[in-house]
Amino acid sequence: MPGKPTKSEEEKSTEEDSLEDLPGVGHTTAEKLREAGYRDFMEVAVASPDDLAAAADVGEGIAQKIILEARKRAKIGGFESGAEILERRKRIGHISAQSNAINELLGGGIETQAITEFYGQFGSGKTQMALQAAVTVQLPVEKGGLNGDVVYIDTENTFRAERFSDMAKALGLDPDKALSRVHVARAFNSNHQELLVPKAFELAHDRPVRLLIVDSLTAHFRAEFLGRGALADRQQRLNRHMHELLRFSDVFNAAIICTNQVSARPDVLFGDPTGPIGGNIVGHTATYRVYLRRSKPPHRIARLVDSPNLPEGEAVFSVTGEGIRD
Ligand code: ATP
Ligand code: MG
């Protein structure tokens, strides 16, 4: 009987995007795409032609055609009315930072469909902030979470399960259950770090991942791309990596947290010679940039440096045995 599809029919139509329906995509190409983490029309639709060409082993012209058709099928790609944008933005969720001052600074907490970068010197609280969010995101929405799993890309081997458990217990979560919802991958170099993003896409099809953390975003890139000659390459790779992260945040309505150290910047000739690594590329791609610095223990100061919709400002918070607090 024609009419409104039943629930199961609706589910079927969204769950079973067949990549083979796209022009020029046979079974082999579809398999390659799925292996690279492109599972549905939406993911193909927001890919860049060169990424897709590399993943599917086809020419860029064909990749372009595939993407255009996927955009039609996923009903995206044209202009969006302001009303539609508002509708999409209504789906944005927030993860409480467990500090009212920081939540206020960030307009309600750490936002989904966005990248929040925490940068600062060693010991400024970047990893603590990331661990805290990894716990909090598991809480129900009314308690400041998103009832979600976490992907934690750890480049410096600083994820501490014990510390995470302490924070989980402090919020009344069962620490073992909470630990089972954090999916930690140690990234051994920048290449590996980049490859973990498509892995995260795969995982997010099976688990409700609502937060992806990269701690640290820049350490491998900084160590591997030395000297002025390597700078352009490094920036290009970082740029691409961050755009993949943004794509993840869009597709899964997830929050992205990146940490970044500050350094004396040999690449800066004028102006402030210290600053976050990755400079403009990271700064322009991150939606929110938050500078953390130490104050009188256990206090820290967070400063919102760059935001499309919020005023600059500062918040005082503490790192305590239970986690981040006011
Ligand atoms: P790096 O650049 O080295 O990665 P970071 O900004 O990630 O530094 P964090 O690991 O977030 O630094 O912060 C470490 C600080 O957090 C410690 O110096 C300490 O002050 C505080 N801290 C860590 N664990 C606890 C705890 N259990 N109780 C209280 N404070 C703690
Ligand atoms: Mg750290």
Amount of beta strand: 15-25%
Find the count of extended strands (DSSP E, 2+ residues).
12
CATH topology of the largest domain: Rossmann fold
The N- to C-terminal Cα distance equals: 58 Å
- Written as H for each helix and E for each strand, in order along the chain, the element string is HHHHHHEHEEHEHHEHEHHEEHEEEE
Shape assignment? globular
Tally of helical segments: 14
Q: Round the Cα radius of gyration to an integer and report it.
A: 21 Å
Concise account of the structure shown:
The protein has 326 residues and is an alpha/beta fold. It has helices at residues 7-15, 27-35, 41-45, 49-56, 60-73, 82-90, 100-105, 126-136, 161-170, 175-180, 190-206, 219-224, 231-251, 279-285; strands spanning 94-95, 110-111, 114-120, 149-154, 182-186, 209-215, 255-264, 274-276, 288-294, 299-306, 313-320, 323-325. Strands 3, 4, 5, 6, 7, 8, 9, 10, 11 and 12 form a 10-stranded mixed sheet that branches. A two-stranded antiparallel sheet has the order 1-2.
Question: If you had to describe this structure to a student in words, what would you say it looks like?
Answer:
By secondary structure, the protein is an alpha/beta fold. It folds into 2 domains: 7-74, DNA polymerase, domain 1, CATH 1.10.150.20; 94-325, 3-Layer(aba) Sandwich (Rossmann fold), CATH 3.40.50. Helix content is 42%, strand content 21%. It is built from 14 helices and 12 strands. The protein has helices spanning 7-15, 27-35, 41-45, 49-56, 60-73, 82-90, 100-105, 126-136, 161-170, 175-180, 190-206, 219-224, 231-251, 279-285; strands spanning 94-95, 110-111, 114-120, 149-154, 182-186, 209-215, 255-264, 274-276, 288-294, 299-306, 313-320, 323-325. Strands 3, 4, 5, 6, 7, 8, 9, 10, 11 and 12 form a 10-stranded mixed β-sheet that branches. Strand 11 (313-320) and strand 12 form a beta hairpin. Helix 4 packs across helix 5 (60-73) and helix 11 packs parallel to helix 13. The chain is globular and about 60 Å long. The N and C termini lie far apart (58 Å). Bound molecules: adenosine-5'-triphosphate and magnesium ion. Magnesium ion (MG) binds next to helix 8.
